[in-house]
Amino acid sequence: MISTDILIIGAGPTGLFTVFEAGLLKLKCHLIDALPQIGGQCSEIYPKKPIYDIPGFPEILAGELTDNLMEQCKQFQPGFTLGERAETLEKNDDGTFIVTTNKGTKHQAPVIAIAGGLGSFEPRKPLIHNIADFEDKGVEYIIKEPELYRDKEVVIAGGGDSALDWSIFLSDIASKVTLIHRRNEFRGALDSVEKIQELKNQGKISIITPAEVIDLVGDDAVKGVVVKESDNMHIDKEYVLETDHFIPLFGLSPKLGPIANWGLEIEKNAIKVNNALDYQTNIPGVFAIGDVNTYPGKLKLILCGFHEATLMCQAAYQIINPGKKYVLKYTTVSGVHGFDGTSKTAPKAVVKKIE
Amino acid sequence: MQEDIKITIIDRDGVSHNIDAPTDMAMNIMEVVRAYELAPEGTIGICGGMAMCASCQCYVLSDTELPEKQDDEEAMLSEAFYVKDNSRLSCQIQITSKIEGLEVELAPES
């Protein structure tokens, strides 16, 4: 069981900055995120978009912000459980909590900080009537283990970066890769699009556009997909394409998910908190910070998440060190002392007599 | 002083709302829907208006002339669900005096 001082649900900008503020108070943190990488929306949806309202940065790319936040808090050695979604929250008799993920990983902490943003990102599933029957039986929405596809035939559907990048990657592993999209044009990074063109010219990937998969065939596992293809005369033809795997990559959409069932007060898909004090929810010891919370006047801005994280850490300190008086020390005065032994301090001013 | 324009938005429950939308606040249809809470928070404008999610998809019912779709909107609609010929991303439709009388219906949540 993973034990920590503050268990943070969500490793986006607010969750990451919490690690820093908690570390100044000598509190350890562990973060859970459903995505396989840190950064939340900033790394998943818009890493290359510039953000103009982060204090101190006239302009910063979302991906760079994530890197900077990680750099800022790394000396506090945060632990990460990535690619797993927090499912259940239980309260122990001693007041601590246990959060279990969908993979069964358990985490224990006296304080829970929900920094879930808009919710955990789930794959957008295409509107194929029998797709649920084939999930994990030939239909996958996320590629976790590429070896699963070695020497197999795969059909990938989608028109964005994910579809392009995975088609390129699997062209070296699978025996056959077919990419299907509703348009002839693909939207993605220039070098990905160019690479796909190259692989198509070499015959290593086949591309069917404009087309879409409208049905799946098979008994206990996928045997093929039904493709509906349009030609230039707007006449559709439908046929079965044999395949071992169907991987629809239509992007991700955020859902509040299991958090909605934890007994918290939810309003407009967000968690109500006490913003006059410390952003605590109706469950003592559980806080909600960043886009995931709501209160009168709430603004869903990253900088608001930073502020809420800082105030929340004070309350966390009081819960974990009851009765201890906290003295606010400015980082300019006392520096930053990491758990890894490193220190950031201001160089001492020179005091020297002039002869 | 710019005038408000009148537009009609049919929400996901089929309820029609007649809205006075301001033309001087650089708002788009998605932002009007959010400001008037015509769809639950978290189900529309998820990407903030960057044509990166299709949660603001709507069907244009009136024959109001709208600016052409840009590449981003075309690409996003080609990956969206429940798309029809009259689909647009409401975050890409700016509120200007030119769209007075526009009537749109919000596409199902996705």
Provide the helix percentage of chain A.
10-25%
What would CATH call the homologous superfamily of chain B?
Beta-grasp domain
Shape of chain B: globular
Structural class of chain A: alpha/beta
CATH topology name of the largest domain in chain A, in short, is FAD/NAD(P)-binding domain
| CATH top-level class of the largest domain in chain A | Alpha Beta
Give me the oligomer status: heterodimer
Which residues of chain B form runs of ≥5 with pLDDT under 50? none
Annotate the secondary structure layout:
The complex is a heterodimer of chains A (355) and B (110).
Chain A: E1 2-3, E2 6-9, H1 13-24, E3 29-33, H2 41-44, E4 50-51, E5 60-61, H3 62-73, E6 79-82, E7 86-91, E8 97-101, E9 106-109, E10 111-114, E11 120-123, E12 153-157, H4 161-170, E13 176-180, H5 190-201, E14 205-208, E15 211-218, E16 222-230, E17 236-242, E18 245-248, E19 252-255, E20 266-267, E21 270-272, E22 286-288, E23 293-294, H6 302-320, H7 331-334, E24 336-337, E25 343-344
Parallel strand pairs in A: 1-9, 2-3, 2-10, 3-6, 10-22, 12-13, 12-18, 13-14, 21-23
Antiparallel strand pairs in A: 4-5, 7-8, 8-9, 11-19, 15-16, 16-17, 20-21, 24-25
Chain B: E1 4-10, E2 16-22, H1 29-35, E3 57-60, H2 71-79, E4 87-89, E5 103-106
Parallel strand pairs in B: 1-5
Antiparallel strand pairs in B: 1-2, 3-4, 3-5
Structural overview:
Chain A is of the alpha/beta class. Chain A folds into two domains: 2-121 and 253-343, FAD/NAD(P)-binding domain (3-Layer(bba) Sandwich), CATH 3.50.50; 131-250, FAD/NAD(P)-binding domain (3-Layer(bba) Sandwich). Chain A has helices spanning 13-24, 41-44, 62-73, 161-170, 190-201, 302-320, 331-334; strands at 2-3, 6-9, 29-33, 50-51, 60-61, 79-82, 86-91, 97-101, 106-109, 111-114, 120-123, 153-157, 176-180, 205-208, 211-218, 222-230, 236-242, 245-248, 252-255, 266-267, 270-272, 286-288, 293-294, 336-337, 343-344. In chain A, the strands form eight sheets. In chain A, strands 6-3-2-10-22 form a five-stranded parallel beta sheet, with helices on one face. In chain A, strands 1-9-8-7 form a four-stranded mixed beta sheet, with no helix packed on it. In chain A, a hairpin with a 3-residue loop joins strand 15 and strand 16 (222-230). The longest helix of chain A has 19 residues, at 302-320. Chain A starts with a strand and ends in an 11-residue tail after the last strand. With 110 residues, chain B is of the alpha+beta class. Chain B has one domain (4-106): Ubiquitin-like (UB roll) (Roll), CATH 3.10.20. Helices cover 15% and strands 23% of the residues of chain B. Chain B has helices at 29-35, 71-79, and strands at residues 4-10, 16-22, 57-60, 87-89, 103-106. Chain B has a five-stranded mixed beta sheet with strand order 2-1-5-3-4, covered by helices on one side. At the A-B interface, loops of A face helix 2 of B.
